[in-house]
Amino acid sequence: xxxxxxxxxxxxxxxxxxxxxxxxxxxxxxxxxxxxxxxxxxxxxxxxxxxxxxxxxxxxxxxxxxxxxxxxxxxxxxxxxxxxxxxxxxxxxxxxxxxxxxxxxxxxxxxxxxxxxxxxxxxxxxxxxxxxxxxxxxxxx
Length: 141
Prior knowledge:
The chain is 37% helix and 13% strand. The chain has five helices and four strands; from the N terminus they run ββαβααβαα.
């Protein structure tokens, strides 16, 4: 039950549409385009164990696609990226990482370049975001 003034309008009920659902994915990209991308299944969370498996797959992909030209991994400061377990795994894989200062918007290239390009591509598409993202022509980057 909601308490409100008699003259106040009733609250609006919003219909949840397919586009309102989140699509979680991990993406690695560079100046040449997308190198590797993995989707999380519905209900799966992005934790350290999940994140550790990604650089292993990335290392194999880099060897095949980019000949692993001394790549440096830059990621933000969320817990799965900064946990001791993740840091140990990255050291074992001999992955160099670029430190990401807290609250530094100028070091988030995905926020300024990748996501706006994706939004532009997905705008007006009636299909599910997950299906659209799997079909994105990654040359848009």
